[in-house]
Design goal:
Blueprint: H1 16-21, H2 38-42, E1 54-66, E2 72-77, E3 90-96, E4 107-117, E5 129-141, E6 150-151, E7 170-171, H3 183-189, E8 194-204, E9 212-215, E10 240-245, E11 262-273, E12 279-283, E13 288-290, E14 307-317, H4 323-336, E15 342-348, H5 363-375, E16 382-385, E17 402-407, E18 413-414, E19 428-431, E20 434-437, E21 442-443, E22 458-464, E23 467-475, E24 489-490, H6 497-517, E25 523-528, H7 536-541, E26 547-549, E27 562-564, E28 567-569, E29 572-577, E30 583-587, E31 604-608
Parallel strand pairs: 3-5, 6-8, 10-12, 14-15, 23-25
Antiparallel strand pairs: 1-2, 1-4, 2-3, 4-5, 7-24, 8-9, 8-11, 9-10, 11-12, 11-13, 14-31, 15-17, 16-17, 18-22, 19-20, 21-22, 22-23, 25-29, 26-29, 27-28, 30-31
Helix pairs in contact: 4-5
């Protein structure tokens, strides 16, 4: 499972002093109470020129009220805008855990302290939200018409995503907004204002937090099944925007949508910025769900002379996982993946899951999974794996996630060679002109610093129709700590990438050793590499053309198996050595595009003729 940033804290605490101590707000200063309007507060950059100052009787009309949770408040928008497209006319007024006694359409005069709220804290790297705190207000009239919502579409959103600072990964907060040139500037220039999308395709399924992603650019980088493809650092798909709802659930349940569905009609509300990353429409008007009936895919059965190898991240699987998930994973392996001969599993937890008590064995986890597979009508898989050192491989504390192989002994045999353990590196042995291993299963270079707090690759030697084949299972370090695409630092820094490049070099070196021993060795490298086909890590893994990344053999609009923040992308890969020329590769879309998931990753399978 690729890690996520934290959700928004329960509140930007109602006591401003506490927020100051947390480093989330700019400290207030005394200021004169000159006539101020919202666009003066918002200014032409990402932070307010009046941050920390008291403002008095700022006019506007209430456009929405957040009356639930601990981060309550209301949005107010000026009905007499200036003519500068860089200055927003809307702002959020934060009232903490107190529901403001206001109604949409109230014309108000608001006084308060201008503050910059940094979701997740100032160190998280996300953009800030300009807001008013410690606010008081008076209502001048009610039932007023709301300002028209700004339409987000291909015409209003520039193709270029973000400006870049003068220095690499520099802070762009001080740059004057250029909403006609950069999508990120366009969104920022609309912060707090009413915006709208029409007939918006869903590009990120409804989450447990009752949010989904849509695109305001229906023709941009679409996948074959209705998402938007992330295939370049240069183009993170500017039309993506998140949708949440301010409409009471009893009045209008939030739609349960899959990728490829549509919010038909108009979805409108003030534009917010979420601490999970991304600009978000807080909908006061929500389009109707047009269900496009997205189907879960099924791959074909391998032929008698084809070896089918699959990879599947089963997302923190342990005996404490509900039986329903085991049953769904089993059904997918049997039916959607057509019973692969070998399966490289990622995120198999130990026998008591996240309980942190020194247990590292995973036999109970794998027994429960293989029994569920048999119950679903599948083969009686056997397994091979190596227990990690306790809390040495990252992941959920106490869970001891690891890699494991399942294999169907009626179709393929495992070549057991003793000597493999958590710390002993597997070696390539040349035997009669052929390559073999010093241990099978074994771990690749486990003492290398590249694998610190990360899963060590597991290699196994198999035999199919008398021919040896080597499978290297991987689960590389996550993207935790990287700056978001919409970070206030542009271009965003990706410090986690350094470790993955080192991991790629280690695996690449091991494959080169196998090929040095036998240039015709059949090798499959598979797993959750937590990186893109266009990344430096994948370039390092394929260096010397010793491996072919099979995702690049697919049509462009099919190159994905994971959806994050509305972007369809590839993190799981299967690669083959050059001797394997007859390959048939398929990413089987059964999870990532759906609100109802057995895992957040799609599995993939390659059929080969060794």
């Amino acid at each position: 499972m690729s890690p996520r940033a934290l959700r928004r804290p329960a509140a930007v605490t109602a006591v401003v002093a506490s927020a100051l101590a947390a480093g989330m707000l700019v400290a207030p200063q005394s200021a004169s109470a000159d006539e101020i309007r919202i666009h003066d507060i918002q200014g032409k950059t990402r932070t307010s020129p009046l941050a920390g100052k008291q403002v008095t009787e700022v006019p506007g009309t209430v456009t929405a009220v957040r009356a639930f949770g601990s981060s309550r408040g209301f949005w107010v928008q000026d009905t007499r805008p200036d003519r500068d497209p860089a200055t927003s006319e809307g702002i959020f007024v934060y009232t903490g855990s107190t529901t403001p006694a206001l109604a949409v359409g109230d014309a108000v005069l608001v006084s308060g302290i201008v503050a910059e709220y940094y979701p997740g804290g100032a160190g998280a790297g996300l953009q800030s939200i300009t807001q008013l705190t410690k606010a008081t207000w008076t209502v001048r009239s009610s039932g007023n018409a709301l300002p028209a919502a700004f339409r987000l579409n291909a015409s209003s959103l520039p193709n270029r995503y973000a400006p870049e600072a003068d220095v690499e990964h520099g802070n762009i907060e001080g740059l004057e907004l250029n909403p006609r040139s950069y999508a990120l500037d366009r969104y920022e220039s609309l912060e707090g204002m009413r915006v709208a999308v029409r007939n918006a395709p869903v590009t990120g399924a409804t989450s447990e937090h009752k949010e989904l992603w849509v695109t305001a650019e229906p023709r941009h980088n679409r996948t074959e099944r209705g998402g938007v493809l992330y295939h370049s650092y240069r183009d993170p798909n500017p039309g993506r925007v998140k949708v949440a709802s301010l409409i009471p659930y009893a009045e209008r349940p939030f739609p349960v949508a899959n990728v490829g569905d549509e919010l038909s009609g108009t979805t409108a509300g003030p534009l917010d910025y979420d601490n999970f990353g991304g600009y978000e429409i807080q909908a006061t008007e929500l389009g109707r769900l047009a269900d496009k009936a997205l189907k879960r895919e099924t791959t074909r059965k391998q032929r008698a002379d084809e070896l089918a190898v699959a990879t599947y991240n089963v997302e923190n699987l342990s005996p404490k996982t509900p039986q329903a998930k085991f049953d769904r994973l089993a059904a997918a392996l049997v039916h959607n993946l057509a019973g692969p001969d070998i399966v490289a599993l990622e995120e198999v937890q130990d026998d008591n899951g996240p309980t942190n008590d020194g247990v590292v064995s995973a036999d109970a986890t794998l027994k429960k999974l293989t029994e569920a597979i048999v119950a679903a009508g599948g083969p009686a898989y056997q397994w091979r794996q190596i227990d990690p050192g306790d809390d040495q491989d990252g992941g959920q504390p106490g869970g001891n996630i690891r890699l494991a192989f399942l294999y169907n002994p009626e179709r393929v045999s495992f070549t057991d060679i003793p000597g493999g353990d958590a710390t002993t590196p597997v070696k390539v042995v040349k035997d009669g002109g052929k390559a073999t291993l010093s241990a099978s299963p074994g771990r690749v270079d486990p003492a290398n610093e590249a694998w610190k707090n990360s899963r060590k690759p597991l290699v196994g030697q198999f035999s199919f129709r008398g021919k040896p084949i080597f499978v290297v299972a991987n689960h590389w370090n996550s993207k935790g700590g990287d700056q978001a695409l919409d970070s206030r630092f542009q271009p965003p820094a990706r410090p986690s990438e350094t470790q993955r490049v080192a991991q790629a070099k280690a695996v690449n070196g091991f494959v080169k050793e196998l090929l040095a021993a036998d240039p015709r060795a059949d090798v499959v490298v598979a797993g959750d590499l937590n990186d893109y086909a266009f990344s430096p890590a994948l370039h390092a893994l394929t260096e010397g053309k010793v491996l072919t990344d099979l995702v690049n053999t697919l049509p462009l609009d099919e190159r994905y198996g994971y959806v994050f923040n509305g972007n369809s992308q590839v993190l799981d890969h299967m690669l083959t050595s050059r001797h394997l020329r007859k390959v048939d590769y398929d990413i089987v879309h059964i999870n990532a595009e759906f609100a109802d998931q057995a895992s957040d990753h799609d599995p993939s399978v390659v059929r080969i003729k060794p």
